[in-house]
Each structure stands twice: as structure tokens, then as C-alpha cells.
Write a structure and sequence with these properties.
The protein has about 300 residues and is mainly α. It is built from 13 helices and two strands. Helix 5 runs antiparallel to helix 6, helix 5 packs parallel to helix 8 and helix 6 packs across helix 8. It is a multi-pass membrane protein.
Length: about 300
């Protein structure tokens, strides 16, 4: 009976063992702040994706924009009959529609630039960590040189040279951000390179490519996810800054930065909604991403767990 009871207890304990994903999920949702931020971010993404179907106006279509609807306060009725719940800007765009379309641009620019910068920085960091010697010194001096300049200044200079447009904005953000990923990957890969499983893989005669991408890289993904989340929020803020300064996206593509800039001249005249509502949307997006990224750092790094 004692052996049977012991075996049953062992089976029960084995059945209760959590998978890594289940453990990650339970630890992440322990924080109600991070859970709320994730829910808010998901809602923002859904609203941005469904913008063409849940908005009364396409702000990109000049045929749907009427100058006579310009600077209407929140709750006013447009000449075409629908209600502008958030008011309109100086060009007659419905702010509710423009904000959701602007979120699509901001999220697309942030995610695209973040993914490209992650791939570039990851490749550079892995090469630096695994090659070592002069190759590592040259690469890291380039990274230090890149990081010595503010990202906003680098992006501003590149956009001023390349001109306006989504592609140029993404390219400028990639150049401004790849060094953060490279330094993160290099630091993590140096730690992993000295571990026994890498030495065992090398002793088995595995190729450098397989050792790097099959053994070292998977163990560098956790800090990369955290950095990627934070840098995505930074890229969204930087794009809005460039657009606000007039060197980002053109007026025909109303991103959040463009919408805020359009209402800046009306702030002192009492037409606060033109800048305030897009600013609130930008703030909620960036803060939600940062809160999620901050909690991901705590969950994925055991040393930071309280």
C-alpha cells in the first residue's frame, strides 16, 4: 500500500508540472497592470486593423474630406450627416477616423523598423561575439560610435537627406536603432559561448553556423524580445516626433505626429481637441507597449524576479 501511494503521489506531482509556456503565462498575468496594458494594446491593434470598417471617413481620400467641416468641436455633425464624436482638424478630417488610420501607420512603422533592426543587430552581434578578436573590436567600436549620437538626431539627419515617406522613415529608424540590438545580442552571446553545451557542440564537429543559430541564438531570444518591445515603442515615438517637426510623413498620410502638429497652431485659440486626442492615443499606445515590455523583462529574467 505504501508503494502504491508513493507511486500515485509521484504521478500526481508529474501531472502538475507546468510547461515553460504555462509558467510564463501564469507569471505574466500575475501583474494586473501588465495584464491591463496587454489588453489595451490588443484593443488598439484591433481598432487600427479594423479602421476601414468602423470609421465613417477615409482621411486619405481627399474626396471624402470637406474643408467646410474644419475645426468642428467634438460631437458636431458633419455636412455629410455623420457625427464627429472627437471633432475635426483644420483640413476637415474626422479625428476619430484620422486617429485610427494614424495608429495603423504608427504601428506599422514601429513594428517594421523594429523587426528589420532586430535582424540586422542580431546578425552583427552574433558575428561579433562568436568571431572575437579584431572583428569584434571593429564591430563594437562602430556600435559605440552609433550609440554616442542620440537616436532622434540620427533619424532627423537621415530623413532630412532621404526625404519624406514611410520607406525613408523606416530606413532612418533602422539605422538609428540597430546598435541597441547588436549590443544586447553580443553581451548575451558572450555568456552563452562560454557554457559547456557550446563546447560540447564544437567538440562534436558541428559547423559554426549550426552552433550559432541552433544553440547560441535560441538562448539570446529572451532579452531580444524585451529590447524589441521597448524599441518598438521608441520607434513609434520617434516617428511621431519627426512627423511633428514636418520632416516625417506628408500631410496626405495623417500619422499621429502629423495630427498633433496640425492642431498645434490652434491650441491657444481653444481648439484643444485637434492635438489633445491624437496625443492621448499616442500616449496610450506607447505606455501600454512600455508596460508590457517592462513586465516581460521581469518574467524572462529570473534575476529580476521579486
Amino acid at each position: 500500500m505504501t508503494d502504491i501511494s508513493a507511486d500515485t503521489a509521484t504521478v500526481d506531482e508529474t501531472a502538475k508540472v507546468e510547461t515553460p509556456f504555462q509558467r510564463f503565462r501564469s507569471e505574466f498575468f500575475e501583474s494586473w497592470i501588465a495584464t491591463g496594458a496587454l489588453f489595451l494594446l490588443g484593443l488598439i491593434i484591433i481598432l487600427a486593423l479594423l479602421a476601414p470598417y468602423i470609421t465613417p471617413q477615409n482621411p486619405y481620400d481627399l474626396g471624402q474630406v470637406d474643408v467646410l467641416d474644419g475645426r468642428l468641436p467634438p460631437g458636431s455633425e458633419a455636412f455629410t450627416g455623420y457625427t464627429m464624436w472627437l471633432g475635426s482638424d483644420g483640413s476637415g478630417r474626422d479625428l476619430y477616423s484620422a486617429i485610427l488610420y494614424g495608429l495603423r501607420i504608427s504601428l506599422a512603422v514601429g513594428v517594421a523598423s523594429g523587426m528589420i533592426a532586430l535582424v540586422v543587430g542580431m546578425a552583427v552581434g552574433l558575428v561579433a561575439a562568436y568571431a572575437g578578436g579584431r572583428v569584434e573590436n571593429v564591430i563594437m567600436r562602430l556600435v559605440d560610435l552609433q550609440l554616442s549620437f542620440p537616436a532622434s538626431l540620427v533619424a532627423l539627419m537621415l530623413v532630412a537627406i532621404l526625404g519624406k515617406g514611410i520607406e525613408n522613415i523606416i530606413l532612418a529608424l533602422v539605422v538609428a536603432q540597430w546598435a541597441y540590438y547588436a549590443r544586447t545580442v553580443r553581451g548575451t552571446a558572450l555568456v552563452e559561448r562560454r557554457k559547456e553545451y557550446v563546447e560540447a557542440a564544437q567538440c562534436l564537429g558541428l559547423s559554426r553556423t549550426r552552433v550559432v543559430f541552433r544553440h547560441i541564438l535560441p538562448n539570446c531570444l529572451a532579452p531580444l524580445i524585451v529590447v524589441g518591445t521597448v524599441q518598438t515603442a521608441h520607434a513609434i515615438s520617434l516617428e511621431a516626433t519627426l512627423s511633428f517637426l514636418g520632416v516625417g510623413l506628408p500631410q496626405t498620410e495623417p500619422s499621429l505626429g502629423v495630427l498633433i502638429a496640425n492642431g498645434f497652431e490652434y491650441m491657444l485659440s481653444g481648439r484643444y481637441w485637434i492635438s489633445v486626442f491624437p496625443g492621448i492615443a499616442l500616449l496610450l499606445t506607447v505606455v501600454s507597449i512600455n508596460l508590457v515590455g517592462d513586465h516581460l523583462r521581469d518574467v524572462l529574467n529570473p534575476r529580476l524576479k521579486k
